[in-house]
Amino acid sequence: MIQIPTIDGYSLSSIVYQQNGSINKKKVLIVNSATAVDKKLYHHYATFMAENGYQVITYDYRGIASSRPKKLRGFKASFTEWGQKDFSGVINFAKKEFPDHKIVTLGHSIGGTIIGMTERNNEISGIINIAAQTAYYKDWSKDQKTKIYFLWHIVFPMITKLYGYFPGKSLGMLEDIPKGVIDQWHTRRKQTDMKIQMEATGMQFFYDDCTAKLLTLGIEDDPIGTEKAIKRIHDLFEKSDKELEMIKLASVPTHKIGHFGFFSRKLKDPLWIKTLKWFDTI
Fold first, then answer.
1. What's CA 97's distance to the chain center, in Å?
2. Per the domain annotation, does 159 fall within a domain?
3. Tell me, what DSSP letter sits at residue 176?
4. Residue at 196 is within a domain
């Protein structure tokens, strides 16, 4: 475990998985986590990629898991800061530590969305986004839309207002989340276009600056990362050579993947191998 500094000096709990000594792809893979997820979720995938010749960096955003302060009430953080400050700092670290390596990124959920929030994204050569979306409720699956909306936009904000943060761990719902992240996500509930909405408040985005090759992946049974949902982020990368693909359950050895199952070891073949082969072409 190491600490990687953000561009404003906050320390992020991180792990660098060293590449297999006999294989050197000359690439460093940064894994951007989903919103309330500990970097541990990506351990087996990161190990797999390191065994196949990649330097791999996983990290926790400020306020999440091992990067959270002792007291989360009153702690300032937002998902735009995760992109602008945290991810930027990890890119700087990768450039410094592996100057002769190409940088590639795997963004899971919000981890793909924040790639357009750093001006350093022009340092990235290849991106695989998995279920990256903008939290617009009309994009979610019809059978789960009401339930997710009730949780995300009624229950979560109510509990967060009471505690000063969302106590996800105590409730058995992944990790605790800073209030600013919940508040910012909550504002997305009825706004179709995230970029237009947030730029109107003075925020700056850098999707247009990114020229990395992009593969956007969606999962057939993911109620959040539907094809309509992931296409919103996919389309923002206007300068990228890009493709979008929906993974069908019939093509994998399981009946359920959902929003988080991609990183299960049982999907090493074919899904992890699919990403490895794609990154190898960069």
1. 22
2. no
3. -
4. no
- Residue 208 backbone phi and psi in degrees, to 5: -65, -20
171 in a structural domain: no
The domain tally of the chain equals 1
pTM: 0.95
**DSSP per-residue string spanning 58-77:** EEPPTTSGGGS-S--TT---
pLDDT, tens only, 231-272:
999 999 999 999 999 999 999 989 999 999 999 999 999 999
Two tokens at 265?
């070891």
Residue pair 118/208 in contact by the 8 Å Cβ criterion: no
Per-residue pLDDT reduced to its tens digit, 88-146? 999 999 999 999 999 999 999 999 999 999 999 999 999 999 999 998 888 988 888 89
Q: Which domain holds residue 72?
A: 2-135+205-280
Structure tokens at 89: 């700092």
Look up residue 62 and give its DSSP letter: T
Q: Distance between CA 111 and CA 105 in Å, rounded?
A: 9
* Residue 17 belongs to a domain: yes
The gap from C-alpha 282 to its chain's centroid, in whole angstroms, comes to 20
